[in-house]
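Please complete every field before forwarding. Incomplete forms are returned to the sender.

SECTION A: IDENTIFIERS
Entry label: holo-317
Bound molecule: 8-OXO-2'-deoxyguanosine-5'-triphosphate
Molecule representation: SMILES string

SECTION B: INPUTS
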Amino acid sequence: MSKTERRLIHVAAAVILDGDQRILLARRPDDKHQGGLWEFPGGKVEAGEPVRDALDRELFEELGIRVRSARPLIQIPHHYADKSVLLDVFVVDRFDGQAHGREGQPVRWVSAQQLSDYSFPAANRPIVAAAQLPARMLITGTATDAADYLARTERALACGLRWVMLRAPELAEADFCELYRQLLPLCDAAGATLGVNCDLALANRLGAQALHLNRHRLAQLGTRDAFKGEWLSASCHDAAELARAAELQLDFVTLSPVAHTDSHPDTRPLGWQGFADLCGEATLPVYALGGMGDKDLDAAWARGAQGVAAISEWWGC
Ligand SMILES: Nc1nc2c([nH]c(=O)n2[C@H]2C[C@H](O)[C@@H](COP(=O)(O)OP(=O)(O)OP(=O)(O)O)O2)c(=O)[nH]1
Ligand SMILES: [Mg+2]
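SECTION C: PREDICTED COMPLEX
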């Protein structure tokens, strides 16, 4: 039997958050599969058991906590040499009890940033990215001048946005660079990440932390190492582009258009069903894009999305 034909072992796991947005990690016992590595607590779903029940049961058995609120984060199928798993990961943001290693396993609360310092099983790469990424992503729209760009970005940061993707194809390169330099301290002060949507060479020259590729730049990219920053993502519209993004080990993608949007009036929307079908096959965090806003977050999560990305919703808020 080939690896991909093997039965997937369904596993429920949790990114558990405390009031300070720290995340709970546990260390797998040395004698277990993937032993000695750190994990998001959880375990195998039993035959006939709903996955949410399995999550609640495992977190009580392993940590002694009772889940009060959970939402889907990401689903990752992964084929190890010796077994295949489907990691069904939830965010648990409210629970009762004091989490402790009931099976003698070391546990630790860490910040989202500190996750990068820990060794996880190979399947966890996109899960770690999902745990570090926000649910809402702002893509900048048009503005009358630099001052207007700054004012609109400041308002979005005040609305709680923590990821700003600077997209300004109408600007000359020198103006784009100047705007990036002016936006950076604003975003830093708010603890937000500032990314750019531009060509690779320019992003590297700017020392950008995050680069978002359009479909043409995704098609041209040879290797993700060509980008010197930390986060590399792309705009996808179909299964082939999603596969390409996964192959290049990008950190996340946007998938669009989900709904009708004035910025692309002639493109046929995927609809939620089309989005869910494509997202279900993806092995990296996916943002729903196109006519999206805060009101769509629950619908996006229910269909496997990381969250929503938008211009209009927060560019005038
Ligand atoms: N819980 C968890 N499992 C993970 C992660 N990453 C990863 O590859 N796995 C794999 C390791 C295991 O093959 C499987 C989870 O099984 P498990 O050993 O936790 O199962 P369990 O809690 O039911 O334990 P047991 O009854 O089999 O002893 O998923 C992760 O982040 N969390
Ligand atoms: Mg377990």
